[in-house]
Amino acid sequence: MTMIFGIPIQAFLGQLLIGLINGSFYALLSLGLAVIFGLLRVINFAHGAQYMLGAFVALLLLQYFGINYWLALFLAPLIIGLLGALIERSMLSRLYKLDHLYGLLFTFGLALTIEGTFRYLYGAAGQPYSVPTALAGGTNLGFMFLPIYRGWVVVISLIACIGTWLLIEKTKLGSYLRAATENAVLVQAFGVNVPLLLTFTYGFGAALAAFAGVLAAPIYQVSPLMGSNLIIVVFAVVVVGGMGSIMGAIITGYMLGIAEGLTKVFYPEASNIVIFVIMAIVLLIRPAGLFGRDA
Amino acid sequence: MKTLLQVAGLNAWYGESHVLHGVDMTVGEGEMITILGRNGVGKTTTLRTIMGILRERKGQIIFDGKDMMDVPLHRTAHAGIGFVPEERGIFATLTVEENLMLPPVVAGNGMSLEEIYDLFPNLQERRHSPGTKLSGGEQQMLAIARILRTGVRLLILDEPTEGLAPVIVQRIGEVLRKLKDRGMTVLLVEQNFRFASRVADRFYLMDHGQMVADFPVRELPERMDMLHSVLGV
Q1: A173 at the B interface (CB within 8 A)?
Q2: C-alpha span between B152 and B108 (Å, rounded)
Q3: Which residue, of A48, A258, B11, B92, is most buried by count of CB atoms within 10 Å of its CB?
């Protein structure tokens, strides 16, 4: 058997791939957080709840309307994005004049309310959501058996991440977003409707979380607490990457997913804490994060 | 001359601090007006209040016959007022060209990109560099250029020559005269008295949050003693 660092290569590559899949979710979610934080300066604690809502909307669309995965992958982010925009417009936007802490507290309260409501309605147990038939089954990579659906998650997440990056870095709308992140008042004085831009951004961030939620549904089951389990790790990812850095959030998401996967190979006991250890070290050495601008 | 901007009894506050105490001024179409005054008398605040950035305000601002008091900040530019702030406001995460293209075009009579690059050749050469990699003078040119694209009728400039080398100051003077020839109305705050006397048609002298004098450029020589005492120059 081929060995690498005293570990069978199958195990090594297998965990690498699992790390990449987890990293896909970390990247998608921390990207949404980074986009929202960059412009709104709000640490969106409701991000995990919006991820969970994405998965639930997909499940409910299937149960009540027979709407399949592919349509849900489009509809659930749209619905949660609109809901996010509504929440920003009607509630969150009232807090911008106050300290940023109030935005965090508001979204934290929102997350607890949403999760509590869904727990009341659907119980804490997970509900299965089946893999779409086109992506069922698996393929033998030689070193491991890869469920096709998980390969799809890696690919589509990467596309979504790159698409978001292109939207922000290469389009006119993106230039408004970047400029407003630096100096919102001036951008508004130029005639850009910045309040609308903020609403769009929050809605977009929520939609990204919901998109990740739909992708997660067939892998992790749909449960009211699926988001709160994940969101703490994602916050650690954002801290390591640097608050507000778009590319930083994406790269760090994949990097830490892989670091976590590889830790499972070499020292399984540490795999649950490795991301937080890295976060602590980064905070001590480079508080602005690996990709933060003002380190 | 048609009045383009009419300001009457304008008061403004920064929180508790009452900064403008009834500013009155008129700006005619095609005029170039300079507000003079010592530091802290409310010159920048006057510009920011007219622009609508400072919202704690009372009084009257009428632009081109339209009451501007209830117009939200993001609609001010669409009414035809462009703003070049004191700190220039060049965005670091945008390239020179992105900075240039950022403000939405609000009317059809703005300069085309070709005309702007003709007027500011440096900006074309450096269009792909990050905005803040430009020199101070180039950043000021960029801050003015991006407003010229939009087709606004009134250009508000806050200390355009601050901290710039004499040769750049001269260049900005040339640009302002070209704009005047095109019929642009300009309202500027300026500490550089020599520069101001070369570009302005008319002056407002400000003290303690009010306009205390108003005179055309030809009266400058006879007003010098009074200016010396008020400005302390």
Answers
A1: no
A2: 9
A3: A48
Helices (H), chain A: 9-40, 47-65, 69-90, 100-122, 148-170, 172-189, 194-220, 226-241, 246-266, 274-285
How many domains does one find in chain B?
A: 1
Q: Do the Cβ atoms of B74 and A188 come within 8 Å?
A: yes
Tokens of A174: 């993106």
Matching residue, tokens 């499972």: A264
Instruction: With beta carbons under 8 A apart, name residues in chain B contacting A192.
Output: 74, 103-104
pTM score:
0.88
Whole-angstrom Cα distance, residue A244 to residue A295?
A: 13
Helix, strand or coil, per DSSP, at residue B214: strand
Check: CB of residue B95 under 8 Å from CB of residue B130.
yes
Q: What span, in angstroms and rounded, lies between the C-alpha atoms of A253 and A27?
A: 4
The parent domain of residue B177 ranges over: 3-231
Handedness of CA B113, B117, B120, B123 (dihedral sign): positive
Please report, as a single letter, which amino acid is at residue A73.
L
What are B10-44's pLDDT values in tens digits? 999 998 899 999 999 999 999 999 999 988 899 99
In this predicted complex, what is the ipTM? 0.91
From the list B89, B93, B150, which residue is nearest A186 (CB)? B89
CATH code at B109? 3.40.50.300
Residue A295 has pLDDT above 50, yes or no: no
User: Can you tell me the distance from the alpha carbon of B224 to that of B219, in angstroms, rounded to the nearest whole number?
Assistant: 9
Domain range annotation of chain A: 19-124+145-285
